[in-house]
């Protein structure tokens, strides 16, 4: 037996073999992702055929046959995109009817906002607490005084002169800043052990989720002034921003509540065993985990809010889409390609901001995932 077993032993090491075929590069990626099965192969071929059918005409319309410069509609009669119209109306698209001599104030506010958001968005930059204080307390006051001119000796510019991308961003930022903390409070209230708090929170959430945003905006614009005492009124833009913020706080509350329910019960019990108060448990243990779990849902709500700012057009406020629609009524630019170009441009602007939010949320998710793996 010993002799037979010895025959299976190699007297010398196995000679070196060639390395395995690479799994990186374009060919392995295509084989693994697009042609891994007959169904995927057929789907890939169909998609490629569809792209071959749609992309060349789109490129021809948007670039080859497009009119890039010009002073009126005469340059936009060849059937291509009329980018000359966008160039001619760019100030109107960005600022609306804001006085040209005062548009520097909008630029200053935008720079101040970026100066506060960029350090807050970069994880390695220190001083996040001061960034939050600046963005939530100092910046709104400075922006209000600069944009309206109240309290700083500048020319007063009422909000009915605001418009374009400027109003879209103001409405979206206001809605995001208000809807998230209010949604967190509503989510905590709906999970409260106090029946009154739980019922009020649930009733508030279901009320706002049960009506369309357009109806809410119409109520705030048309019906609310009827119920106010004589001589009492609120700015129309402020009413629209509050409606959007409150409306989406109800959706945000359900997103956050889902995150709270996903946290294991042991986390609650462990934090209570440490003697932490309710606020300490929420701030230090529960809420950071819950918000991490529902980052995709929060960002999805933010994206929906940003896109729905275009609905303020129905109550007479000219946001980006409303200003573009108004600009297309200019008889000097009456051309079949102008409305299509305007809507494509608006869609591109909305896509850039929404895609940026989406990519940043993916970055945060990956960073948090790496942090959990290190622990």
Outline the fold blueprint.
Elements: H1 2-6, H2 26-33, H3 38-64, H4 83-88, H5 90-95, H6 103-121, H7 128-148, H8 165-190, H9 195-209, H10 213-227, H11 236-262, H12 265-273, H13 278-293, H14 295-308, H15 320-327, H16 337-374
Helix pairs in contact: 6-7, 8-9, 8-11, 8-14, 9-11, 10-11, 11-13, 11-14, 12-13, 14-16, 15-16
How would you sum up this structure in a few lines?
By secondary structure, the protein is mainly alpha-helical. It has helices at residues 2-6, 26-33, 38-64, 83-88, 90-95, 103-121, 128-148, 165-190, 195-209, 213-227, 236-262, 265-273, 278-293, 295-308, 320-327, 337-374.
Task: Give a structural overview.
With 375 residues, this protein is mostly helical. The chain folds into 3 domains: 34-63; 83-98 and 157-374, Orthogonal Bundle (MetI-like fold); 99-156. The protein has helices at residues 2-6, 26-33, 38-64, 83-88, 90-95, 103-121, 128-148, 165-190, 195-209, 213-227, 236-262, 265-273, 278-293, 295-308, 320-327, 337-374. Helix 10 (213-227) packs across helix 11 (236-262) and helix 11 crosses helix 13 (278-293). The protein is globular. The chain starts with a helix and ends with a helix.
């Amino acid at each position: 037996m010993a002799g037979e077993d010895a025959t299976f032993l190699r007297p010398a090491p196995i000679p070196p073999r060639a390395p395995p075929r690479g799994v990186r590069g374009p060919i392995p990626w295509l084989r693994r992702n697009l042609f891994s099965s007959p169904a995927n192969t057929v789907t890939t071929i169909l998609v490629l055929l569809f792209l071959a059918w749609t992309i060349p005409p789109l490129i021809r319309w948007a670039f080859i046959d497009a009119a890039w410069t010009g002073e009126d509609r005469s340059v936009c009669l060849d059937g291509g995109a009329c980018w000359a119209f966008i160039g001619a109306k760019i100030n109107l698209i960005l600022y609306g009817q804001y006085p040209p001599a005062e548009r520097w104030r909008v630029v200053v506010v935008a720079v101040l906002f970026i100066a506060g958001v960029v350090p807050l968005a970069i994880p390695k930059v220190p001083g996040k607490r001061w960034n939050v204080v600046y963005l939530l307390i100092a910046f709104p006051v400075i922006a209000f005084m600069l944009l309206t001119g109240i309290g700083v000796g500048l020319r007063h510019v009422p909000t009915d002169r605001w418009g374009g991308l400027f109003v879209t961003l103001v409405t979206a930022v206001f809605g995001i800043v208000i809807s998230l903390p209010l949604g967190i409070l509503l989510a905590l209230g709906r999970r409260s052990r106090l029946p009154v708090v739980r019922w009020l929170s649930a009733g508030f959430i279901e009320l706002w989720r049960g009506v369309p945003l357009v109806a809410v905006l119409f109520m705030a614009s048309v019906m609310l002034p009827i119920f106010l005492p004589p001589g009492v009124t609120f700015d129309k833009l402020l009413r629209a921003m509050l409606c959007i913020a409150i409306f989406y706080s109800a959706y945000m509350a359900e997103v956050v509540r889902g995150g709270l329910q996903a946290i294991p019960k042991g986390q609650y019990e462990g934090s209570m065993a440490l003697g932490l108060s309710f606020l300490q448990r929420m701030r230090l243990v529960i809420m950071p985990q819950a918000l991490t779990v529902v980052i995709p849902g929060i960002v999805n709500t933010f994206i929906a809010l940003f896109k729905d700012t275009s609905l303020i057009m129905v109550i007479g406020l000219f946001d980006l889409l409303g200003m573009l629609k108004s600009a297309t009524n200019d008889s000097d630019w009456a051309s079949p390609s102008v409305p299509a170009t305007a809507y494509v441009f608006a869609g591109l602007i909305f896509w850039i901001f929404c895609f940026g939010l989406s990519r940043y949320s993916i970055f945060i998710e990956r960073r948090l995932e790496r942090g959990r793996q290190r622990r």
